[in-house]
Design a protein that fits this description.
Layout lengths: L1 H15 L3 H8 L4 H8 L4 H10 L2 H8 L4 H8 L4 H10 L2 H11 L3 H7 L2 H11 L6 H4 L6 E3 L4 H11 L9 E5 L2 E6 L1 H6 L6 H4 L7 E2 L4 H11 L3 E6 L2 E7 H19 L12 H28 L1 H6 L7 H24 L6 H37 L6 H32 L10 H23 L4
Parallel strand pairs: 1-2, 4-5
Antiparallel strand pairs: 2-3, 5-6
Helix pairs in contact: 1-3, 2-4, 3-5, 5-7, 6-8, 7-9, 8-10, 15-16, 17-22, 19-21, 19-22, 20-21, 21-22
């Protein structure tokens, strides 16, 4: 509620305040995140007022909370000199993300940065996207294992203002990382004592080419604020908790887009044509699968004509199979994304667990479907049909279809993952349509067998 209130106040303030000085003083009362949330809803003229009212450092704080695509577009609204000054005040990893989105304009900004900043940005930009090196920051404090605690404390006081984080400190010896040091331990330690005597030698880390998902999960699993990134055992950067949260959020957004079969185009950041181009291939694929389902149903047209009552329960069976398949799919994708299925034993255990759950659920729902359909047909059915046999077909169809759908929803993402294909593309409408094919075939095949409706 407070966030919405701040948003409305900032919108009103920027639209109505004519004094640059008053606007500057008023905006500084709000958190940069709140201003960033409102930034997208300002006109170009209103944003120009903010550019004039705030310092480079204040704008840098706001831009760090914007999506890198939006931040790059807004940066282009500034002249090169002004934009470069904003970039120079940002954390280097955030600046790299924005510069990568500037594309052909990137060189213009890089040329105006200080030589040290240019080297640092060029170094981080060299790492492939989605690797730990691509999201790390080089703004940390590193102490030598052989330093006395007094020497380390002097270094901390001198450099703390320039570092992104000061706790923990990272400990190296002979150009190789050997431990981490909590700030509290350094503060209470007394000379003469070396850093190696109070540091923690058992620490988590990732290498520069490790996946950003692996890095984010380590931060989450070990509950640490900053994860060291190594290259040949040398400390070259750190990944902070806020960067890990951004990665996890982006991964969730990406999976949701794929589960909805809309591709990877972000709404509001691309043209109508590109959005349509991302969605149409999926819609065409689902249309083809839908036509295939219709053809399968058409193949059983004679069966439906002989026992029209079967058509009444077709939707129920398809919906139940789709629900069970989606549940198994969601649990499996979550397990894969959290690296809980990274071994054969864990995968086998997961498959057996999901199979047991599917069998129990299918058995209970099959019995319930038999009872409900029997009552329904007893009240509404005609006397020419064998009610018990129809209900048996419905119950068996529910039982078999739900087991197959659960198994299918579990196996498909695992197989996709083994083939290095994102398992999220196996979800949503895609797997539901495939489950429809399975359920229709099972349902009407049982009707043919149990009712003797052979051609």
């Amino acid at each position: 509620m407070q966030e919405l209130k701040n948003y409305e106040q900032i919108l009103d303030l920027v639209k109505n305040e004519s004094s640059v000085f008053n606007l500057s003083q008023s905006l500084k009362q709000y958190h940069p995140y709140d201003i960033a949330k409102a930034f997208l809803d300002f006109s170009k003229t209103e944003r120009d007022k903010i550019y004039q009212a705030l310092s480079h450092e204040d704008l840098a704080d706001i831009f760090e909370y914007l999506d890198e695509v939006d931040a790059a577009n807004f940066l282009k609204e500034l002249d090169i000199e002004h934009g470069t000054s904003v970039l120079s005040e940002m954390e280097v990893d955030d600046a790299v993300d924005i510069i990568n989105e500037l594309e052909e304009d990137a060189s213009s900004y890089l040329e105006n940065l200080e030589l040290e900043d240019q080297k640092e940005i060029s170094y981080l930009s060299a790492y492939e996207e989605d690797t730990a090196g691509s999201i790390m920051t080089t703004n940390y404090l590193e102490v030598d294992a052989d330093w006395d605690v007094k020497e380390a404390m002097k270094y901390l006081i001198a450099e703390a203002n320039e570092a992104e984080i000061v706790d923990p400190l990272f400990v190296s010896r002979n150009n190789q990382m050997v431990g981490v040091l909590d700030l509290k331990k350094l503060i209470i330690a007394r000379t003469p004592k070396k850093i190696s005597e109070i540091m923690e030698e058992n620490f988590s880390f990732v290498n520069t080419n490790d996946s950003i998902i692996d890095a984010s999960m380590k931060i989450s699993n070990y509950d640490i604020y900053a994860l060291p990134v190594l290259e040949n055992q040398k400390l070259v950067g750190i990944i902070t908790m806020d960067d890990a949260l951004d990665v996890i959020k982006d991964e969730v957004d990406d999976d949701l887009e794929k589960m909805a079969s809309i591709g990877e185009v972000k709404e509001g950041r691309t043209t109508l044509f590109k959005t349509l181009a991302a969605r149409i291939p999926w819609l065409i694929l689902l249309l083809i699968l839908g036509l295939l389902t219709a053809n399968v149903i058409g193949a059983y047209e004679d069966v439906i004509k002989q026992v029209t009552t079967l058509a009444l329960f077709q939707t129920m069976i398809l919906d139940m199979a789709g629900n069970v398949g989606t549940q198994s799919l969601a649990v499996t994708i979550r397990g894969l994304s959290r690296k809980n299925l990274d071994s054969k034993s864990k995968t086998r255990k997961h498959l057996l667990k999901e199979l047991k759950i599917s069998i129990i659920n299918s058995f209970l729902l099959g019995i319930l479907a038999f009872i409900v359909s029997y009552i329904f047909l007893l009240v509404n059915g005609d006397e020419t049909i064998n009610i018990v046999m129809i209900c048996l077909i419905i119950g068996l169809a529910i039982f078999i279809s739900l087991i197959l759908s659960g198994l299918f929803g579990t196996l498909v993402p695992i197989i996709f993952d083994k083939l290095k294909i994102d398992p999220a593309v196996a979800s949503g409408p895609f797997i539901t349509t495939l489950n429809d094919l399975i359920s229709v075939t099972v349902y009407f095949s049982l009707a043919i067998i149990l009712l003797g409706l052979y051609k």
